[in-house]
Protein backbone atom coordinates (compact mmCIF):
# COMPACT_ATOMS: atom_id res chain seq x y z
CA UNK A 1 0.00 0.00 0.00
CA UNK A 2 0.96 3.65 -0.39
CA UNK A 3 0.92 5.40 2.99
CA UNK A 4 1.52 8.98 4.16
CA UNK A 5 2.83 9.58 7.70
CA UNK A 6 2.23 13.23 8.64
CA UNK A 7 4.00 14.65 11.67
CA UNK A 8 4.99 12.78 14.80
CA UNK A 9 8.32 11.87 16.34
CA UNK A 10 8.98 8.57 18.14
CA UNK A 11 5.63 7.15 17.03
CA UNK A 12 6.33 8.17 13.43
CA UNK A 13 9.80 6.64 13.63
CA UNK A 14 8.34 3.38 14.93
CA UNK A 15 5.53 3.27 12.38
CA UNK A 16 7.75 4.01 9.40
CA UNK A 17 10.15 1.23 10.35
CA UNK A 18 7.27 -1.19 10.85
CA UNK A 19 5.52 -0.26 7.60
CA UNK A 20 8.70 -0.55 5.57
CA UNK A 21 9.11 -4.07 6.93
CA UNK A 22 5.77 -4.79 5.24
CA UNK A 23 7.11 -3.44 1.92
CA UNK A 24 4.70 -0.49 1.86
CA UNK A 25 5.55 2.71 -0.01
CA UNK A 26 5.97 5.51 2.52
CA UNK A 27 5.99 9.30 2.32
CA UNK A 28 6.84 10.98 5.64
CA UNK A 29 6.05 14.70 5.98
CA UNK A 30 7.44 16.48 9.03
CA UNK A 31 7.87 20.13 10.01
CA UNK A 32 11.05 19.50 12.02
CA UNK A 33 14.12 19.70 9.77
CA UNK A 34 16.35 17.88 12.24
CA UNK A 35 13.87 15.04 12.56
CA UNK A 36 13.50 14.84 8.78
CA UNK A 37 17.26 14.39 8.56
CA UNK A 38 17.05 11.62 11.17
CA UNK A 39 14.25 9.83 9.31
CA UNK A 40 16.02 10.17 5.96
CA UNK A 41 19.22 8.73 7.43
CA UNK A 42 17.35 5.87 9.12
CA UNK A 43 15.02 4.84 6.29
CA UNK A 44 16.44 4.99 2.79
CA UNK A 45 13.31 3.39 1.36
CA UNK A 46 11.01 6.18 2.59
CA UNK A 47 10.50 9.56 0.93
CA UNK A 48 10.99 12.20 3.63
CA UNK A 49 9.55 15.69 3.00
CA UNK A 50 10.30 18.72 5.15
CA UNK A 51 7.24 20.93 5.57
CA UNK A 52 4.01 21.55 7.46
CA UNK A 53 1.48 18.82 6.47
CA UNK A 54 -1.31 21.27 7.36
CA UNK A 55 -0.33 23.28 4.27
CA UNK A 56 -1.97 22.30 0.99
CA UNK A 57 1.08 23.16 -1.12
CA UNK A 58 3.32 20.93 1.03
CA UNK A 59 1.00 17.96 0.54
CA UNK A 60 0.73 18.73 -3.16
CA UNK A 61 4.49 18.93 -3.65
CA UNK A 62 4.94 15.70 -1.69
CA UNK A 63 2.88 13.89 -4.33
CA UNK A 64 0.40 12.19 -1.99
CA UNK A 65 -2.61 12.35 -4.33
CA UNK A 66 -4.43 9.03 -4.57
CA UNK A 67 -2.51 7.34 -1.75
CA UNK A 68 -4.24 4.55 0.17
CA UNK A 69 -3.83 5.76 3.76
CA UNK A 70 -2.79 8.92 5.60
CA UNK A 71 -1.77 8.73 9.26
CA UNK A 72 -1.72 12.10 11.07
CA UNK A 73 0.44 12.22 14.21
CA UNK A 74 0.73 15.92 15.05
CA UNK A 75 0.73 17.13 18.68
CA UNK A 76 -2.49 19.14 18.29
CA UNK A 77 -5.77 17.34 17.65
CA UNK A 78 -7.05 20.22 15.51
CA UNK A 79 -4.04 19.88 13.19
CA UNK A 80 -4.69 16.18 12.73
CA UNK A 81 -8.34 16.79 11.88
CA UNK A 82 -7.37 19.45 9.34
CA UNK A 83 -4.78 17.17 7.72
CA UNK A 84 -7.22 14.25 7.47
CA UNK A 85 -10.04 16.34 6.01
CA UNK A 86 -7.70 17.95 3.47
CA UNK A 87 -6.29 14.55 2.52
CA UNK A 88 -9.73 13.28 1.53
CA UNK A 89 -11.17 16.46 0.09
CA UNK A 90 -8.22 17.65 -1.98
CA UNK A 91 -5.98 14.64 -2.48
CA UNK A 92 -8.39 11.71 -2.83
CA UNK A 93 -6.66 9.68 -0.14
CA UNK A 94 -8.83 6.65 0.53
CA UNK A 95 -8.51 6.23 4.31
CA UNK A 96 -7.40 8.58 7.06
CA UNK A 97 -6.19 7.74 10.57
CA UNK A 98 -5.08 10.13 13.30
CA UNK A 99 -4.10 10.18 16.93
CA UNK A 100 -5.94 12.39 19.41
CA UNK A 101 -4.80 13.53 22.85
CA UNK A 102 -8.31 14.37 24.05
CA UNK A 103 -10.28 11.10 24.15
CA UNK A 104 -13.53 13.08 23.72
CA UNK A 105 -12.41 13.85 20.17
CA UNK A 106 -12.52 10.22 19.03
CA UNK A 107 -16.22 10.12 18.22
CA UNK A 108 -16.31 13.76 17.08
CA UNK A 109 -13.50 13.30 14.57
CA UNK A 110 -15.04 10.13 13.17
CA UNK A 111 -18.35 11.98 12.75
CA UNK A 112 -16.40 14.66 10.83
CA UNK A 113 -15.04 12.17 8.32
CA UNK A 114 -11.85 10.75 9.85
CA UNK A 115 -11.95 7.01 9.23
CA UNK A 116 -10.22 6.15 12.50
CA UNK A 117 -9.29 8.41 15.43
CA UNK A 118 -7.08 6.70 17.97
CA UNK A 119 -6.67 7.69 21.61
CA UNK A 120 -4.57 5.52 23.91
CA UNK A 121 -6.54 6.86 26.87
CA UNK A 122 -9.86 6.10 25.17
CA UNK A 123 -8.89 2.55 24.24
CA UNK A 124 -7.41 1.73 27.62
CA UNK A 125 -10.37 3.18 29.48
CA UNK A 126 -12.74 0.94 27.56
CA UNK A 127 -10.44 -2.05 28.02
CA UNK A 128 -10.17 -1.44 31.77
CA UNK A 129 -13.96 -1.12 32.02
CA UNK A 130 -14.22 -4.69 30.72
CA UNK A 131 -11.60 -6.04 33.16
CA UNK A 132 -12.46 -6.80 36.76
CA UNK A 133 -9.19 -5.25 38.00
CA UNK A 134 -6.16 -3.71 36.35
CA UNK A 135 -4.18 -6.90 37.03
CA UNK A 136 -6.46 -8.63 34.50
CA UNK A 137 -4.79 -6.71 31.67
CA UNK A 138 -2.96 -9.06 29.37
CA UNK A 139 0.81 -8.92 29.98
CA UNK A 140 1.81 -9.39 26.34
CA UNK A 141 -0.63 -8.96 23.44
CA UNK A 142 0.72 -9.97 20.00
CA UNK A 143 -0.47 -7.81 17.10
CA UNK A 144 -0.05 -7.92 13.33
CA UNK A 145 1.12 -11.54 13.14
CA UNK A 146 3.73 -11.12 15.91
CA UNK A 147 5.37 -8.07 14.29
CA UNK A 148 4.35 -5.81 17.20
CA UNK A 149 4.04 -6.57 20.89
CA UNK A 150 2.18 -4.53 23.50
CA UNK A 151 3.73 -5.22 26.91
CA UNK A 152 2.39 -4.24 30.30
CA UNK A 153 5.31 -3.83 32.71
CA UNK A 154 5.04 -3.04 36.43
CA UNK A 155 7.74 -0.70 37.76
CA UNK A 156 9.12 -1.65 41.17
CA UNK A 157 10.92 0.74 43.52
CA UNK A 158 14.35 -0.68 42.64
CA UNK A 159 13.96 -0.33 38.87
CA UNK A 160 16.49 2.00 37.19
CA UNK A 161 13.77 4.11 35.52
CA UNK A 162 12.15 5.27 38.78
CA UNK A 163 12.11 9.09 39.05
CA UNK A 164 13.55 9.44 35.53
CA UNK A 165 11.94 11.35 32.67
CA UNK A 166 11.04 9.30 29.60
CA UNK A 167 13.23 11.62 27.51
CA UNK A 168 16.24 10.64 29.65
CA UNK A 169 15.68 6.89 29.35
CA UNK A 170 17.83 4.87 26.96
CA UNK A 171 15.17 2.72 25.34
CA UNK A 172 16.13 0.36 22.51
CA UNK A 173 15.19 1.02 18.90
CA UNK A 174 11.50 0.43 18.01
CA UNK A 175 10.31 0.87 21.60
CA UNK A 176 7.69 3.38 22.78
CA UNK A 177 6.08 3.90 26.19
CA UNK A 178 2.56 4.59 24.99
CA UNK A 179 0.74 4.81 28.31
CA UNK A 180 1.34 5.02 32.07
CA UNK A 181 -1.25 3.49 34.40
CA UNK A 182 -0.80 5.11 37.82
CA UNK A 183 -3.27 3.71 40.33
CA UNK A 184 -6.63 4.60 38.72
CA UNK A 185 -5.18 7.30 36.44
CA UNK A 186 -4.35 6.70 32.78
CA UNK A 187 -1.61 9.00 31.43
CA UNK A 188 -0.66 9.45 27.78
CA UNK A 189 2.98 10.46 28.30
CA UNK A 190 5.40 12.79 26.63
CA UNK A 191 9.14 13.00 27.13
CA UNK A 192 8.78 15.11 30.30
CA UNK A 193 6.75 12.57 32.31
CA UNK A 194 8.62 10.91 35.17
CA UNK A 195 8.23 7.22 35.91
CA UNK A 196 7.21 6.40 39.49
CA UNK A 197 7.40 3.22 41.54
CA UNK A 198 4.16 1.26 41.17
CA UNK A 199 3.46 2.54 37.65
CA UNK A 200 2.34 0.08 35.00
CA UNK A 201 3.78 0.95 31.61
CA UNK A 202 2.14 -0.02 28.34
CA UNK A 203 5.14 -0.51 26.07
CA UNK A 204 4.95 -1.04 22.30
CA UNK A 205 7.91 -2.87 20.82
CA UNK A 206 8.94 -5.48 18.28
CA UNK A 207 9.76 -9.09 19.20
CA UNK A 208 13.41 -8.37 18.40
CA UNK A 209 13.56 -5.46 20.87
CA UNK A 210 11.36 -6.89 23.61
CA UNK A 211 14.12 -8.39 25.77
CA UNK A 212 16.19 -5.19 25.65
CA UNK A 213 13.09 -3.09 26.43
CA UNK A 214 12.30 -5.09 29.56
CA UNK A 215 15.93 -4.89 30.71
CA UNK A 216 16.07 -1.10 30.12
CA UNK A 217 12.96 -0.55 32.27
CA UNK A 218 13.36 -3.18 34.98
CA UNK A 219 17.13 -3.52 35.13
CA UNK A 220 16.78 -7.27 34.78
CA UNK A 221 14.06 -9.61 33.54
CA UNK A 222 13.90 -11.18 37.01
CA UNK A 223 12.19 -8.06 38.35
CA UNK A 224 9.20 -8.43 36.02
Automatic annotation (TrEMBL):
One Pfam family name is TrkA_N
What SUPFAM superfamilies does the entry give?
Answer: NAD(P)-binding Rossmann-fold domains, TrkA C-terminal domain-like
Tell me the keywords, alphabetical order: Ion transport, Transport
* Gene Ontology biological process terms from the UniProt entry: potassium ion transport
> Can you provide one Gene Ontology molecular function annotated for this UniProt record?
monoatomic cation transmembrane transporter activity
Q: Which domain of life is it from?
A: Bacteria
Which segments constitute the RCK C-terminal domain?
138-220
Give the matching Gene3D superfamilies. Answer: NAD(P)-binding Rossmann-like Domain, Regulator of K+ conductance, C-terminal domain
Q: Where is the signal peptide?
A: none
Q: Where is the RCK N-terminal domain?
A: 1-118
Q: What is this protein called?
A: TrkA N-terminal domain protein
Q: Give the organism, scientific name.
A: Hungatella hathewayi DSM 13479
